Amino acid sequence: MNVLHDLLAERGTLLIDGAMGTELFARGLGSGDPPEMWNVDHPDRVTAVHADYINAGSDIVLTNSFGGTGFRLKLHKLDDRCIELNRAAAQVARAAADAHLAETGRRVLVAGSMGPTGELLEPMGSMTPATCADAFREQAIGLDEGGADLLWIETMSHLDEIAAAVEGARSVSDLPVCATLSFDTAGRTMMGVSGEDAVNRLAELGVDAIGANCGNNLADTEAALYEMRAANPDVLLISKANAGMPEWHGTELHYSGEPEVMAAHAVRQREAGIQIIGACCGSSPKHLAMMRQVLDGDLPVPEVEFEVAVVRQVLKGRQRTGRRSSRPQR
Q1: How far apart are the first and last CA of the chain?
Q2: Does any domain span residue 330?
Q3: Could you tell me the pTM of the whole model?
Q4: Block mean pLDDT (10 aa), the chain, length 330
Q5: Given the DSSP bridges, would you call strands 252-255 and 246-249 parallel, antiparallel or unpaired?
Q6: 13 lies in a domain?
Q7: How many domains does the chain have?
């Protein structure tokens, strides 16, 4: 049984949640503090974030474990608690999902968030594929034990790191695996991976769903996803873009994408054949609530300014420069 495919068959288009970090900061997380520790120290506050997104209409919530590999936890001298903290991350999200199911009868999936290690693979860095796979193996153990429904490898830029993450996760878990990359200028990741590169390689790995999250702006994210869809019309795609562009207002960072902007974006993505849609940095339960209402037809599609021509320019730029880059693709 594949819980992701089953829920898709039931609901058609699935809504993921939004940003976790900004919601935790609003609840008292200090700058530089490891969010994963809150799964143990303040589980009620983390559960409350999940509950807010679920009540806004999210079908999938991502655990508070983005920096949960031993590599990232080592920065806070917490690498010896990797399994514990990831288990707790899944447990607090599971608590919110189960409470909602008991109250409403509506199922919400818990996705175990697995972010990049922050290290570079050989020969550009010192991390080997084996040590990379082992880091994700350890994280997957905790997430699986804590009750995650699927594993969610996200915000990646290098396909070899994803391959190692998939290998590590599958060595200890039978849960479905999804993977998303972060696309920047000209629809490529920091390591030069295009949407076509990503969908071709990850389809070979048998990943359950593939897509884009975070990224430079809505246009680059949408362009990468259009390229993925053109390269493979059958693969299940994920869109979890930032809420517009980051802008400094004095000493505070704000994102330009209001709920109306993200709701219109969600409709464009569904029309492009993306079936799993959410939001990333700068988003909140308010964004997700409007996205849900517009996708469900309870609100009209907002009339917002968006230069679809910019997406076309990104795609044309990819065509002019060719499918390959001088930077590492794999």
Answers
A1: 31
A2: no
A3: 0.92
A4: 92 97 94 96 98 98 98 97 98 98 98 97 94 98 98 97 98 98 87 95 97 91 94 97 72 74 96 97 96 97 72 57 35
A5: antiparallel
A6: yes
A7: 1
